[in-house]
């Protein structure tokens, strides 16, 4: 039986991330500027998409744990391909949000299954696997956001065409190279009964819950960068192309910074739990800096701080969850990682749109800082207490 090779997971992650980064940076701007919809309505669409993605993440984790991940992963990618093809021809209201939501649902199923598949690799440490997955995803962000700033000037539909083609390539790689080694084992009824007894410990569940609580709040703040910040920057006279280049900077820092973090990790053996809280602290600083940002230079500084927090914290979150969860519940807890991110993306744009229209951007950033700081402290207390146990 063929074995799953990490390099094919990384290539697939690169291609899918490049395709995805053609769409998500422009969603709010496209709805607001091209379709003439309000920020609140754009936030509502993203809210609904993220809620649907929560369901997709849960379903993906469940299907993986049941041993039927491969066929559902392929079906989910095929659904995304269909939605992206339709977007080439039907990108007005209400076709655009409907197809966007369908693509998000299918993508959540596929991504959760692929993350669980990555956690099943035994010849590498979980932290190394997810660091590399994250690294390749951000190379995709660099490529995607760099190109999208040029493509959008030609025709918005070209974005959907390129994304569609990339996902076709992604499907071919998943079909031919993604091997689910655990499927045959899970078909053995005796082994399944044995695995059922291996539940995740309560202490581990508490630690996972605390870390994911803060992760959810950070994703709420991060979602502002991907939605309302684009409109805010344009209101300050900063062009859309400069906004897209911030994401290019984000990707470049990740690409350069990730190997450095990995080297320091191998050299000094930095604990993953410590790393995640250092990253969380940087997010607090970054979100606080947005309160005072009024020109492009300040937004750039804030993005740089955000990116360092992201580089340090985001790759180790699924690795911590993979190490703390039992093999029989691997899919479920990787699904919870995706659910936390999706919930943040669900609430973030909608909350941001409402707060901005009723009050101000400054109040929005202050709220995000307070939420992230409070949950970080709570999570740290929970983690320290349960690690001692």
In this structure, how is the largest beta sheet organized? none
Give the radius of gyration: 20 Å
Structural class: mainly alpha
Ends distance: 41 Å
CATH topology: Growth Hormone, Chain: A
In terms of DSSP E residues, the strand content is under 5%
CATH architecture: Up-down Bundle
Q: What's the helix-strand series?
A: HHHHHHHHHHHHHHHHH
The unreliable regions are 183-195
pLDDT averaged residue by residue: 82
Q: Considering DSSP H and I runs of 4 or more, what fraction of the residues is helical?
A: over 70%
The figure for the number of domains is 1
CATH top level assignment: Mainly Alpha
Number of helices in the DSSP assignment: 17
- Total strand segments: 0
Shape: globular
CATH superfamily: MFS general substrate transporter like domains
Task: Give a description of the structure.
With 389 residues, the protein is mainly α. It has one domain: MFS general substrate transporter like domains (Growth Hormone, Chain: A), CATH 1.20.1250. The chain contains 17 helices and no strands. About 3% of the residues have low confidence.
């Amino acid at each position: 039986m063929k074995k799953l090779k990490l390099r094919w997971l990384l290539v697939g992650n690169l291609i899918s991330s490049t395709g995805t980064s053609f769409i998500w940076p422009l969603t709010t701007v496209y709805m607001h500027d091209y379709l003439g919809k309000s920020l609140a309505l754009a936030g509502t669409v993203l809210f609904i998409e993220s809620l649907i993605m929560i369901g997709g993440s849960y379903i993906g984790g469940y299907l993986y744990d049941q041993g039927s991940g491969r066929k559902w992963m392929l079906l989910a990618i095929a659904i995304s391909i269909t939605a992206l093809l339709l977007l080439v021809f039907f990108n007005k209201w209400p076709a655009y949000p409907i197809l966007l939501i369908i693509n998000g649902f299918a993508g959540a199923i596929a991504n959760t299954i692929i993350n669980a598949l990555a956690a099943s690799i035994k010849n590498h440490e979980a932290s190394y696997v997810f660091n590399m997955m994250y690294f390749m995803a951000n190379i995709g962000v660099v490529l995607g956001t760099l190109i999208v700033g040029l493509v959008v000037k030609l025709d918005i539909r070209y974005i959907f065409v390129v994304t569609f083609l990339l996902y076709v390539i992604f499907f071919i790689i998943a079909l031919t190279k993604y091997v689910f080694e655990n499927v045959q084992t899970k078909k053995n009824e005796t082994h399944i009964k044995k695995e059922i007894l291996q539940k995740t410990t309560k202490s581990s569940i508490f630690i996972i819950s605390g870390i994911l609580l803060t992760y959810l709040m950070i994703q709420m703040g991060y979602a502002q960068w991907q939605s309302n910040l684009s409109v805010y920057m344009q209101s300050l006279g900063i062009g859309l192309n400069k906004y897209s280049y911030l994401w290019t900077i984000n990707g470049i820092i990740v690409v350069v910074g990730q190997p450095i973090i990995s080297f320091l990790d191998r050299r000094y053996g930095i604990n993953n739990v410590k790393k995640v809280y250092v990253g969380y602290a940087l997010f607090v600083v970054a979100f606080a800096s947005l309160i005072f940002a009024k020109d492009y230079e300040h937004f750039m500084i804030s993005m740089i701080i955000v990116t360092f927090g992201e580089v340090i914290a985001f790759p180790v979150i699924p690795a911590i969850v993979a190490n703390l969860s039992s093999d029989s519940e691997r899919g479920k807890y990787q699904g919870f990682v995706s659910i936390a991110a999706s919930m943040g993306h669900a609430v973030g744009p909608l909350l941001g749109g409402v707060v901005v229209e009723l009050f101000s951007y400054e109040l929005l950033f202050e709220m995000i800082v307070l939420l992230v700081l409070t949950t970080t402290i709570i999570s740290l207390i929970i983690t320290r207490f349960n690690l001692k146990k």
